[in-house]
From TrEMBL:
<comment type="subunit">
    <text>Homodimer.</text>
</comment>
<keyword id="KW-0378">Hydrolase</keyword>
<comment type="similarity">
    <text>Belongs to the DTD family.</text>
</comment>
<dbReference type="InterPro" id="IPR023509">
    <property type="entry name" value="DTD-like_sf"/>
</dbReference>
<dbReference type="GO" id="GO:0051500">
    <property type="term" value="F:D-tyrosyl-tRNA(Tyr) deacylase activity"/>
</dbReference>
<dbReference type="GO" id="GO:0005737">
    <property type="term" value="C:cytoplasm"/>
</dbReference>
<dbReference type="Pfam" id="PF02580">
    <property type="entry name" value="Tyr_Deacylase"/>
</dbReference>
<dbReference type="GO" id="GO:0106026">
    <property type="term" value="F:Gly-tRNA(Ala) deacylase activity"/>
</dbReference>
<feature type="short sequence motif" description="Gly-cisPro motif, important for rejection of L-amino acids">
    <location>
        <begin position="137"/>
        <end position="138"/>
    </location>
</feature>
<dbReference type="GO" id="GO:0019478">
    <property type="term" value="P:D-amino acid catabolic process"/>
</dbReference>
<keyword id="KW-0694">RNA-binding</keyword>
<comment type="function">
    <text>An aminoacyl-tRNA editing enzyme that deacylates mischarged D-aminoacyl-tRNAs. Also deacylates mischarged glycyl-tRNA(Ala), protecting cells against glycine mischarging by AlaRS. Acts via tRNA-based rather than protein-based catalysis; rejects L-amino acids rather than detecting D-amino acids in the active site. By recycling D-aminoacyl-tRNA to D-amino acids and free tRNA molecules, this enzyme counteracts the toxicity associated with the formation of D-aminoacyl-tRNA entities in vivo and helps enforce protein L-homochirality.</text>
</comment>
<dbReference type="GO" id="GO:0000049">
    <property type="term" value="F:tRNA binding"/>
</dbReference>
<protein>
    <recommendedName>
        <fullName>D-aminoacyl-tRNA deacylase</fullName>
        <ecNumber>3.1.1.96</ecNumber>
        <ecNumber>3.1.1.-</ecNumber>
    </recommendedName>
</protein>
<keyword id="KW-0963">Cytoplasm</keyword>
<dbReference type="GO" id="GO:0043908">
    <property type="term" value="F:Ser(Gly)-tRNA(Ala) hydrolase activity"/>
</dbReference>
<keyword id="KW-0820">tRNA-binding</keyword>
Amino acid sequence: MKVVLTTVKSASVTVDEQLISEIDRGFLLLIGAEKGDSEADVTRLSEKISKLRVFEDSDGKTNLSLADVNGEILAVSQFTLAADVRKGNRPSFTQALEYQEAQILYEFFLKKLRDAGFKTLPGVYGANMAVSSINDGPFTLILRSQNGILT
């Protein structure tokens, strides 16, 4: 499972010109599930995301967590994170987890983040979304878990 995490001043998801979700300061997460991913990967990633200290303190050091800044989460599914671009010029998505299985893991991810006490808003699973953000930094991380272990 892969997650692209970006700190944002604000972020939103719109589908068919209708605002679906909007957050202020926090994390924009792009979540991609691959074949072999499991609830153990979701658990490991959600635990790490919950504790990351990536916001600046009063001394300008990245020392504050999402909870410390009362941040919010916008979590968007993005199967294209499973793309393989090694051959040719057209990405292959054969490593992407099947639609329904990936949706189950995505919903579980949302639950884990909410259970950790974070306001967590979703995109629309499987929809063509317009995702907007005002990045803060920018500060972007790529997190990956396989078999419940960060890689």
